[in-house]
Amino acid sequence: MRLLALLLCVQAVAPAVAQQAPATKEDPNKKICKRQQVTGSFFMTRECHTKAEWDLMAENARAAVMRQRSAFKGHEGN
Question: I need a labelling partner for 30 at 20 to 30 A (CA). Which of 5, 38, 51, 70 fits?
Fold first, then answer.
């Protein structure tokens, strides 16, 4: 009986909690710092950029991978 009461309470509260969650985007000018491993070194470096800059660097990296994949596919049959 207690389990049923608990389940009913959770079911009643869950929609209210879901409605409270704001659907806001992150600020593109927010500064984000990441620690990164330098190739060939045991030391970590700290690199800081805005969210927009990190997103742009990630998109550029994805585009570079896609260019390499398409270039490789062109040489497969030769």
Answer: 38
